[in-house]
Amino acid sequence: MHGPASSGWLLVALCAATGAYCLLRMRSDVEEQRRAAGGEALMGFGMALMAVPAAVFTPPAWAWPAYAAVFGAAALRALWAARNSRHHLHHLVGAGAMVYMSLVMAGSPGHGHVHGGSGFPPLTGALLLYFTGYVLLAGVRLVPVAVVAGPAPDPSRSPSAGGWGDRPEVARACRLSMGIGMLAMLLTL
Q: Looking at the domain assignment, is residue 107 inside a domain?
């Protein structure tokens, strides 16, 4: 690594690519996948914006409260959607973490990017524990399992029938990537 700027750019690339893939997933025929993909795209692009190295771009003072408002609205939407799907609880925690990081940055001297020294340590620690557990669980879910021989799969029901945007393993990999990105951002608080 060549210092914080290069790791910042890697995080920007990871989060932006994840956000772009989630936008593609919004074209799915499955309604629940479209809804989840929209929240994940917002999260990916928001994380990418927050991770841009401060040497390249320092957002104006109003940007951090704006981030907090956008992700606060996303948290409320996730809370409403959590009535029907447990997965939206993760979106709620993620959006809450983004609000928290935005407020920390709004209160930091110079309004720099996520790079440290402030925040509420117990909350930061709790979020680090949550996202560490999430990343480990998401990683385990990506491990292939042995398939028991059975009837031949119906080609009309294969994952590729809906296009590569509907592949659940790629969606899981994107969630894993965003979890890793969230860990990296929280570690800098």
A: yes
C-alpha triplet 112, 113, 116: angle, nearest 5°? 85
Round to whole Å and give the CA distance between 40 and 36: 6
In a domain, 17, yes or no: yes
Report the alpha-carbon distance of residue 88 to residue 178 in Å, rounded.
Answer: 15
Could you report the per-residue pLDDT of 34-57, keeping only the tens digit for each? 878 888 999 999 999 998 888 888
Asked whether residue 18 is domain-assigned, the answer is yes
Q: Judge whether 58 lies within some domain.
A: yes
What is the radius of gyration, based on Cα positions, of the chain? 18
Contacts 24+ apart (CB under 8 A), 140-144: 141/172, 142/169, 142/172, 142/173, 142/176
pLDDT under 50 in the chain at which residues?
1-3, 111, 158-161
How many domains does the structure of the chain reveal?
Answer: 1
> Residue 106's domain spans which residues?
4-144+161-187
Long-range contacts formed by 81-88: CB under 8 A, 24+ apart:
81/35, 85/32, 85/36, 87/36, 88/36, 88/39
Which stretches within 1-110 are classed as H helix? 4-25, 31-51, 63-81, 87-107
pTM of the model: 0.81
Say how far apart CA 150 and CA 75 lie, in whole Å: 43
